[in-house]
């Protein structure tokens, strides 16, 4: 019996995290200053591909205040930065060959690659000395594009070739379907290279314990995974690498690796027995923190006369850049397994070429594989609609998954797990979304305005996300006699509001105010095992673990109270954070119970002291939120500028824990989706020199570029695969933005062009306007 | 089947700890310097007893660099420093009334009591400003002596009186025995006030987490107990108080409390959000760190005509000083329950008056209650021998416990546990000890030398110690794939060699080299629960826990190897740190097994990752080592100086884990025993002003004063109460030193005096020589 059903779950509880940020008491790694610390400056490759004929560090080494200068030669013993998951080897057989050395040895493979490391008493000395390191490069031919790299004679990894892996996923008779189709449409789509670009660059501080072989580390996002990887490369037990809590100023997937810079900092701190601090500047960040996205999709659709999809085929060229990083095998795998989206695709074949080039290595970035493939699929569906002669809305209606199609288990694996879409009704959601947005009026209005000579268009994209992954998460709940509840979680707070959400979930179980609940995370000393926050997994997995632990705490409280109150356990119930006796006045608050069960009393009874439970929640089933993003915009033909008139994103979310944080996630994702669609791109000269290494050239949307985002959510299909019924909502808002924006631009310009490349940059739009616009005068 | 019986246990493995000290990489709290730290200086009472009429802090507060000045008024909300153990209340009903405020309010009770606290940017500013704090004292009458305090009309704690508790322990018909005795001897013995005086004074560094309500703390000895006490007084959850490892430069029982200085430092750091460092200077240490020992024993013995003890009676006046501190209730309880020593005492009555005075509060100091009561008992036995007309050796032979007397359970509790002496043969050990020492020759030789006019004497004391207490200890063993084994223990390293001993115990179970085993402790982040190192408990309790965890690790390794090697578990055995298959070549080292059982594999199988076990070892049975200390010395009658000619200590030790660390413990204890017998005393003027506040006046024995200590141990009676068969050996070497030295001086001087007060200071000896010595010329 639950006395207060849903007292906190589903409520817009204010974010616990914000007080720190609003009162400026939040501490980032860059704020950590340790007595005696050295500052690290990395010497980076100025060449995209070259042999290192020699490195002269003598002048740098002799500068006053310089304590150490390292090159690749000094670190050959420790090898390359390994990937965490052994399971990746099943996807990429020669994974080790493609991992990155800490400092380059013999050869550099991208501009920005760490070549040497200078440690000095202050950051300015370090930077000045780094400029005195002289590297003798012998340039080698450069490969930048994944398609041409795959075809090239130039062998970037001799003995292994330029294709790190080829991933193929298929079901059904694709060839047969294409042979008998009434309509076949094919097109090539490209999503350019951009990335998460968090406000905080990478920052890393490492302090050796002066008397023990232990390193204290501030600045990693995925503390447990990074602990495991650093353990392996440094040869130190995992518990000797103690990752400490700091705030993370954004991650979005690109900042979670063990980076070469972290390894060299840790190695030197351990050797010198002095703290080392590394603060990345923005220019370094733009060439050396992981990039993302760059993919080419050659996609085909076979349809029958009624516009129903018979088959989908996609050949994907994924530009890994120069090396593998942590999450990349996942990105390739997910991309290959999710191109079909929330559609009833009877046969399917996707082949992904994981190709190396001479660019910065890639990482996962918010909705990896989904943003790219959704752009391609939704654009191609618009073409297919035209070929069939029906509207873009109608072709979705005829192909989106309906309740009666579920469970949809076409027989394909995605990250070792069968794709299993098991609840909801996508067509129904789609129809309600259009109706809620007033889509028909948008269309009518745009047409009317175009008739007035204005360049107004509409477009939409349908999306399916996947949340979850990572098998398990840890969670503990501890009631302190001083009147606080502590939740320890393997998740991390990267802006998504996980502290608030977990406080709500635990408060719900303990039936007390979430303001009494503190959530601790990203601290391997308090939380020895965990997986972390990525892949929209925290609410489901960390929430599941915290919930389990809270339930166990309530059980223990009742067991103890039964003895303390001398009452049968069956007569006890929980109400308002206290165990009460049915039909009597006796009560013991959870805090009182915890206080009475002190170390001595508990151990005497062969029990654990206090009121605490540790849980591991296992769930490797992904969940699949879906929705639509709809856009109405106007282009200024004189300048190529644009204005969003309407921006509407919908999602079937499963059970929402906190509508306020959900809203924040969707708006934040929309910003980044717009960035990837219209502004952000890492551009290169032919010789591999990056040309967007500052915010002068890498355009980032800011508040002025942002539309008002309207949001519509349905909770019709709570996930049947977790007790909260929740789905991962961290990425859903970004997925269809590229497709919707491209469609709306094509509609607004009415020039017959089919946008097949993102970003659609301001200069591209301006050029199209120049070609189509007839000035009124 | 154990392939390598006792490969490491019992071997003189070199101390793991020493490398840090010898290479100067050991870090003490005083070495911790944090960016932005403030320095604390305590303003201490200059009066032994006074009303505070007013405190003027304005001038101090206005000094440049001073950030905060606190007085008791600012801290009234947090109350007094609580004691940890709820169980103490059973011994001392009004405990709370006698605990110490963090800063004095209204009244000061001893010279050195904290009155105000100054926080400044550097320690010199803080000290200068502290001198500007002006306190207006109105002196009150002073009580210094426990006997007169008990009788005084002056009420130190109005409403409670000066007797904090009266503890009575008795069995048998004592009155009857005294009435019918052939011989009755009675005498009053006094042991003066001295203390542990560790090389490192108290040092305490506290750092608030800048974004969370968490304090990181360096410098506490008993990290878990201190965490629990600080949690209560600060109102913070225990896991918000994160005690970090530093080396401890000696404790000996006197430095383990939560002291008022720690609380004020933590309180201010939390409020100011800045790190606070406190380094105690030696003069502060001598008045403000806990003192120890001061007791008066009024003891009587009833014997029959054969010199067999019929009854023992003792009235003890224990001078608590001004307040209760953590371990004091234990000291009083243990004293009352252990006066009889290893003798067959058929009836017994001891009454202890726990009396408050205007001196520094007491704490436990190495062998509390045993050093004092053994001095009294052994001296009185010497008197009894004379009364009966037998030798001091003979009276022991007739009364010490024999194998046939065991188990000796006279029906008395000591710290909530029945006194239970269950193994050995004290007479046998005593005889072997005398024989091993060559006691008869010592006696003959001394007599011969005295006949030559030299002042040579012999003396001995028989001792019984008790090891253990504290109910349980925690221990974890973790095998890291990188080739190290980590032991996590609730014990702490305070110089006793626990890291080495635990490494041996675990290496024995895992059958690998103890050099591969790292022991981590005193770190609440790595070890969330524990009790700590005091009461000679670490080998038995922490060793028991580490052994349990190691056994579980071996079991888990076999279970995993059985699957990995596809072999029945029954066919597996452990050899040289690897699981091997009987009759086959297959083997997996523990490190390989740990590496294969990574987070993903283990969680997939619903198991904990890695190769680790966490154990809680419970054992509240104390163990009772026993032995003799024998001394031969010569006094220089001209100066009162002396020279130890022979110093011999024996012990029945149970199973010894490491004879080298055992030897170190016994020698270290002997030094401190000599200090307490001949040098160390906190002396006072009548108005309560301490007169021994530096090493000019408080005499500490150094290398020059030390004899060569010969040691003889027997391992005839392994403790039946723990699987190691071990006993606590940290205190055994100090216990009988006072008795033996006093006896030898009396023998050497031959002046008929009976030394009944310790220390026997150089000036006392000189005065006695002046009275007795006839210069030869």
Automatic annotation (TrEMBL), chains A, B:
The keyword Oxidoreductase applies. GO terms for molecular function: iron ion binding; oxidoreductase activity. Keywords: Molybdenum, Oxidoreductase. The keyword Metal-binding does not apply. InterPro entries: Ald_Oxase/Xan_DH_a/b, Ald_Oxase/Xan_DH_a/b_sf, Ald_Oxase/xanthine_DH-like, AldOxase/xan_DH_MoCoBD1, AldOxase/xan_DH_MoCoBD2, AldOxase/xan_DH_Mopterin-bd_sf. Residues 23-141 form the Aldehyde oxidase/xanthine dehydrogenase a/b hammerhead domain. This is Xanthine dehydrogenase molybdenum binding subunit apoprotein. It comes from Amycolatopsis echigonensis.
